[in-house]
Amino acid sequence: METAHAAWRRLEPVHAMIYFAPEARRRYAELGLSGRAGYFAFRSAAFGRASAELVISTFYNFNPDVVRQAVDGVWETATPQQVLDARYAAAGEALRRAKVHELPYLSEVLTLTRRAAEAAREHAQGRPLFAAHAALPWPQEPVLQLWHAQTLLREFRGDGHVACLLSEGVGGLEALILHAATGDVPVDFLKASRAWPEEEWTAAEERLRERGLLDGDSLSPEGATLRRHIEDRTDHLALPAYAALGEADCERLADLATPFGRAVVEAGLLKVG
Fold first, then answer.
1. Angle between helix 246-266 and helix 2-16 axes, rounded to 10 deg
2. Which InterPro entries match (predicted)?
3. Residue 125 lies in a domain
4. pTM to 2 decimals?
5. Which pLDDT band holds residue 34 (cuts at 50, 70, 90)?
């Protein structure tokens, strides 16, 4: 399980940069979309004309009022296919700027990642965001195939993570607060990006303290145990994809993935703002 997690984590910047790269902001601005409207449209376009309620349900941890405001009228501004085309164009531009297409072992990394993504398609039940993206055609360009494959693996894992949170009675806002309490991500970033009102954030913190999951602003021992359980269970639910590789190929992918993630980081594609 640790090897599978490492293979996903080390290559994840190849997917995640699409939420921060200026190429993406420029492409959705060209469609008349800005700010959160661009983000929600880019990630939900695989559903077709996704409603705000579908986005709220599947994205899980955003303030519903902000989602409704951002999604209102978005599909009258641009069609889902236009948004998908723009997303792939932005991904290709950004990854080529990072020179990912020139890295050694691209072909092998792509082969392994695509094998895992294709295996995940046999386990799509209960994973709506993954299933929507898995139904899209594969791009032709190798660097875009790699981005698409990692996108599938990210959404496969993400849908499983939501299932874990639901099973433990942790709502979207509560999940953000528990994440913030680990110190892994700045609380100000989570508050700004997910846009929950301060009073709702404070009320949710108090509920988590009453459950014994927070001690002040930090995780209590019970909270830390729950977080570890959710992360371990998420890793376990992601295993069907990586099990198709076997231990040796999964370890090979984890070893080869590091330069790809590093190239994205060094190109500044994960910078906020």
1. 30
2. HTH_67
3. yes
4. 0.95
5. confident
